[in-house]
From TrEMBL:
UniProt site positions, description: Important for catalytic activity: D235
Site (Transition state stabilizer): residue numbering on this chain: N164
Classification via InterPro entries: AP_endonuc_1, Endo/exonu/phosph_ase_sf, Endo/exonuclease/phosphatase, ExoIII-like
SUPFAM superfamilies: DNase I-like (SSF56219)
Endonuclease/exonuclease/phosphatase domain sequence ranges: 14-265
Residues of the site described as Interaction with DNA substrate: H265
GO molecular function, one term: double-stranded DNA 3'-5' DNA exonuclease activity
Annotated organism of origin: Thermobifida fusca TM51
Entry's family note: Belongs to the DNA repair enzymes AP/ExoA family.
Protein name: Exodeoxyribonuclease III
Higher taxonomy: Bacteria, Bacillati, Actinomycetota, Actinomycetes, Streptosporangiales
One of the GO biological process terms: DNA repair
Amino acid sequence: MRARLLAMSSLVIATVNVNGLRAAARKGFVEWLAGTKADVVCLQETRAELDQLPPEVAEPDGWHVVLVPAATKGRAGVAVYSRMKPDAVRIGFGSAEFADSGRYVEADFGPVSVASLYLPSGQVGTPLQEEKERFMAEFLPYLVRRRTEVEAQGRELAVCGDWNIAHQEADLKNWRGNRKNSGFLPEERQWLSRVYEEAGYVDVVRALHPDQDGPYTWWSYRGRAFDNDAGWRIDLQVATPGLAARAQEAWVERAPSHDQRWSDHAPVTVVYAG
């Protein structure tokens, strides 16, 4: 596997919050998966057990599937679909509280580890926001430790998924109206700055598109948010510097129209040089 991955001309990784994998499968996810050029696909908010999925989703031709549901039925859930069988898989990040939350899975593919992350969304003034804060407090030290580990092994890591934080004003359309809302709180944005500045990871899409508003990855189903492109950029590929330096191009696979969406999020795809 290691030799095969090193020999590849590129590694293509896609990530998307499917907003319920069973619903997404009925709306177009199956067709999207069949047509994607990605080698690895990270999914979040799958909200399903493996035996609840149709064969074309649970065992699609040409794909290996690692599905990690949450202990609480119908919540969260992450997955990694890959054309190559993973060398190893790790569920969770060493947190006792979030061990069975269906929010993190990491798979090794030769010299590159790819993780699917679903960071809690939070809601100001509620226990949901407290949960999000506890998650962030435990997750940042893990990112620091994990980068040290993979780089000591001569390897790289990409943490892909729904981070549920818009980092800068350029990352959401209506930033003025969301300054007191979860996802754009000053303390959340500062935490994400620490991921980049202290832990040393790179926001791959922003590095490739430094002066662009967006590209947005999530639009509310309410009103005409999608039609007006009033979105948020919260779905990220965050990579160790060595892997980020190999990123050649990145794009958001925004649906052509509102009625062709199979999730309220859109896939974020990045091509990394081999």
